[in-house]
Amino acid sequence: MGYTMNDLKNKILEMYPEISRYGIEVSLEFSEPKNAYVVHFKHERGKDKHELTTHLEKNDADECMNNIKCVYLGIKVAQFIKNFELQEREL
């Protein structure tokens, strides 16, 4: 399946709108040795900075491009958001 990293990033943002809603930055790179995309999430508010790096297997990325949600990535996004929400409530 042919698509660019920008296409994949846009599809992830489309499938997981909470990423944009919370102002999370997303960047991608492809790791040839792992045959997977390395996905970086970053959220900054004031002095608080939260980052998460995870992997999206090539097959999962292909399914994502075919509008099949990647459960693993969705769980990672939800946990990332939950973690910084909890920290902000504690402040």
Which stretches are low in confidence, meaning pLDDT under 50 for 5 or more residues running? none
User: Could you say what the CATH architecture is?
Assistant: 2-Layer Sandwich
Structural Rg = 14 Å
Q: How many strands appear in the DSSP assignment?
A: 3
Q: Estimate percent helicity.
A: 40-55%
Q: Strand-and-helix sequence, N→C?
A: HHEEEHH
- In quaternary terms, these chains amount to single chain
Mean pLDDT: 89
Tell me, what's the shape?
A: elongated
Structural class determined from secondary elements: alpha+beta
Written account of the structure:
The protein has four helices and three strands, in the order H-H-E-E-E-H-H. It has 91 residues and is an alpha+beta fold. The radius of gyration is 14 Å and the shape is elongated. Strands 1-2-3 form a three-stranded antiparallel β-sheet. The protein has a single domain, classed as Double Stranded RNA Binding Domain, CATH 3.30.160.
Topology diagram in text:
Blueprint: H1 5-15, H2 18-21, E1 25-31, E2 36-45, E3 48-57, H3 58-65, H4 71-90
Antiparallel strand pairs: 1-2, 2-3
Descriptive key words:
91 residues; alpha+beta; Double Stranded RNA Binding Domain; 3-stranded antiparallel sheet; 4 helices; 3 strands
